Amino acid sequence: MSFFLSPISEEVKSSSLFNPYLYTFAFASLYLLYCLLYIWLSSEIASHFAFSIQELTSIEQWKGTVFVFVTTLFISVILLLTLKRIEEYQNQILHQQNLLIQSERRATAGIFAASVAHDMNNYLFSMSGAIELIKESPSLNITDKQQQLLNSVEVGLQALMNLSTSLVSVEQETLQRDVTLIDINNFIEEIIGLTKHHQRVKKCTVRLEPMQLPQVLVDVNLIKQALINLIINAADAIQHPEGVILFKTALTHQQLLIEVHDNGTGIPENLRQKVFEPFFTTKNNGSGLGLLSVKVCMDKHHGNIKITNSASLGGCCIQLAFPLN
Fold this sequence. Notes:
Layout: E1 5-6, H1 20-49, H2 53-136, H3 144-174, E2 179-182, H4 184-195, E3 204-209, E4 215-219, H5 220-236, E5 243-251, E6 255-262, H6 292-300, E7 304-309, E8 316-323
Parallel strand pairs: 3-5
Antiparallel strand pairs: 1-4, 2-4, 5-6, 6-8, 7-8
Helix pairs in contact: 1-2, 2-3, 4-5, 5-6
């Protein structure tokens, strides 16, 4: 799959839909205005209806009681609405976490199936070609019984090819193609927002240093899963509480670059070619399939992966290079 570039139609302006400082200032200003108006108006009314110090004292007591009751009721309503909104946000976060876990499982199954099918096909085609050469070689003087055995082997190979095709269909079902024209920087910001509540990522600060890029046509599901796994693996590599994961985007004449930096322990040079192989892992409880999604994503987009030391954070830097044409 290749990238198709199109100019950005308009400048993207990042703005927050909810500004807590603005809302707090507005609430405090309204409450202060309400208190001042109440004090001033109630004092004016009390001065007109009180004909003695005792009556003024009684009115002031009732006025204070009413003020406390009304403000308590008002603050309780505001607090209730705020807590309900917090509860809704918590439920949304839990829902997103569940969706993320389900997406990881489906994508891992599909990616593993695709990897196995690809390797299996290579061996099967080699074996099938060897059998054809044996059958077509007149110098071997194959007997009828040997011919039957070769035919049986061919039937078995065909069955394995059908199984390989089934595995490919599993990949197609679990990794549904969603080729879309997107802004890579905005897409990375969405992925950061999606993963920041992940159990293994929430200890880290994840941020993006973007470069202005053209919009690109990509397989959204593949890139999403690849970036999620890169974030999770970077978080796992950080063994201290002040973890930082930094995304950088860049553009050359031939490639669009996405870099993922971290301040973890890094990847030794002798392991950098192995980390994308199925089942290879350096973790005690790792499956060895997480980074496989990155390899599949880059293969589908005809891109390449490069692992270096991070000059920005001192840990690891994984660079994804996508061809522009």
